[in-house]
Write a structure and sequence with these properties.
- The chain has twelve helices and two strands, in the order ααααββαααααααα.
- With 333 residues, it is mainly alpha-helical.
- The chain has a two-stranded antiparallel ribbon with strand order 1-2.
- Helix 7 runs antiparallel to helix 8.
- The chain is globular and about 50 Å long.
Length: 333
């Protein structure tokens, strides 16, 4: 437990210490955010706010792991996967800055890059980390075994694709208000720190704890009104750590509960798009999607939306931990 707390503290201090200098670096080079034209009018004032702040979070994470974490396959594999998805986010952020617009990589190209990252994750998980091709179903005595051979590997790869791509994109969609994705991600990762610790996967607990510290340090600058945005670099990194923690602790089916707010945000976009297309662009379910913008449009102040969504995420996370403790931890003991 001391190592987890130490990792979180180091990541927090490094992120806070480097944050001001890094923001100044971004401002000097005019690496600012381009606000979508069809977004809330209150967001127009945010145009030009430095982005790619997720880089400083990753520096805090790496610094903590260098000092605290053990140099083993699990730690290196997790860090490699997180770096891969964060690298995709960094490239996406750079494309937005280069094009001077709010659109970066195409959905198809980003999906292709994430798929390649999943293939790498699949190889590392199965061959080097020791992850089994089974899915643990809470409340059931038997696990869902995907079986050996090519078919089992293919099914497990598809499952990993859903977990990693789904999680990273859901966190990315949530990142639309100052501090929203960061705070919600920290809450979910606190639960995964506890789950990993109870599972005696101390390396995973250290990584999750370090990421929590880095996120809280980033919130020092990302709280409303934000001095810097995390960009896709940060949101994909948070999603990557969450997905990796779920896979390594075999709690993939609990991830949608622990990170329930991210699921709600993603579903709001899917529902809005589906209804919009089915009705010939005549009807909308929400005033604007993702759903956090809907509440802005009905008159909620940004801070109120963020804090209330944090409360909702905390409730989801608590439910997820309860399900883990009652159906998995106690039953295993």
């Amino acid at each position: 437990m001391f190592s987890v707390v130490l990792a979180a503290a180091i990541a927090f201090l490094v992120t806070v210490a480097l944050g001001a200098t890094y923001i100044e670096f971004l401002q000097t080079r005019k690496f600012g955010q381009f606000v979508r034209e069809d977004g809330p009018e209150t967001h127009l004032i945010k145009a030009g706010t430095p982005t790619m702040g997720g880089v400083v979070m990753l520096l805090g994470l790496v610094a903590a792991l260098v000092v605290v974490a053990r140099l083993n396959v699990a730690t290196l594999a997790t860090l490699l996967i997180v770096s891969a998805v964060a690298g995709i986010g960094l490239y996406d952020d750079w494309q937005k800055i280069s094009k001077k617009g709010s659109e970066g990589l195409s959905v198809r190209y980003k999906f292709l890059l994430l798929t390649l990252a999943v293939v790498m994750a699949d190889v590392l998980a199965l061959r080097y980390v020791g992850v089994t091709q089974t899915i643990v179903v809470p409340g059931f005595d038997r696990n869902l075994a995907l079986g050996p051979g090519v078919v089992g590997i293919a099914l497990f790869s598809l499952f990993l694709l859903l977990v990693i791509v789904g999680t990273t994109n859901a966190v990315n969609l949530t990142d639309g208000l100052d501090g929203l994705a960061a705070g919600a991600g920290a809450i979910a990762l606190v639960v995964y720190t506890a789950i990993a610790f109870l599972e005696r996967q101390y390396d995973v607990a250290i990584i999750c704890g370090a990421m929590v510290g880095a996120i809280v340090g980033f919130l020092w600058y990302n709280a409303h009104p934000a001095d810097v945005f995390m960009g896709d670099t940060g949101s994909l990194a948070i999603g990557g750590v969450l997905a990796a923690a779920a896979v390594l602790t075999k709690t993939e089916l609990l991830l949608p509960v622990v990170g329930g707010l991210f699921v709600v945000e993603a579903l709001s976009v899917i529902v809005q798009y589906a209804v919009f297309r089915l009705t010939g662009r005549k009807r909308r379910v929400f005033k604007m999607a993702p759903i956090h913008h809907h509440f802005e449009m009905v008159g909620w102040q940004e801070n109120k939306v963020v804090v209330r969504f944090w409360i909702v995420q905390a409730a989801f996370a608590a439910c997820g931990f309860f399900l883990y403790y009652y159906f998995l931890y106690q039953s295993a003991g």
